[in-house]
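Z., the sequence and structure:
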Amino acid sequence: MASAVIGSLIGTYDLKMAQQWRDEDISHRAQEKQWRDDDIKRAYSWRNEDVEREKRLNKLENERRITDARSEQLSAVSNLSALLGGFAMVANVEISLPDDVSNIVMFFYGTTSAAVILCMLCCMLMCTLLLLAITQYASQELETDLRHLSFDELDVESPFYVWWLKRCEQDWLLAYKFFRMGIFLFLCTVSWVGWVQFEKTAIAGIGMTAIAALSFIFWQVRIESKWRYLLYFPETKIPPS
């Protein structure tokens, strides 16, 4: 009888301990599952951070390439305007005027030459100042503006485009208008040179005027109309100030 009671107690104890071990095993497995889930979430978060960091670095590099391209464009226009303005200035200094040249012809020639120099000078100065503005923005503000973009905005927003359209686009278009006007006046100066140097030979003046007119038409119809789109940025959403 006593052995039966002892056996029953031992069996009950074993059953209780087995149940406890089972509960502890289930709890441990649940804890391991939680640890695995935490590891997966942490790895996923780190991966997203790495992807975002790499994407922001690529975006910054792309923005810097855009600023470099715009700087090259401004530098090219500035150098060409300086070249044409300098050529007009040298032509004024080096030209040998006949003694009997008409005052009216001289007035138009001098006025046109001065207008060429001033238009090209304004274009060169504005392009130079825009270059300085781009340099300052790229070195001081670009990274800050890029950090303010969310991850989803990196593919659709361009900080440099937005800054350029808000701060520099109008000045750039004005500088290019000066450049276009300078080219037109430069060709007019070429035609006036024919009338100044060859006033007594009308055919020479007519020939130089015709060549200048054809050159301007070719510039407008074949060159500028074809490549004018290079002067503008694509449409970009500008957030309110």
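The domain at 62-231 is CATH 1.20.140 (Butyryl-CoA Dehydrogenase, subunit A; domain 3). Confidence is low (pLDDT under 50) at residues 236-241.

Let me know what you think.
H.
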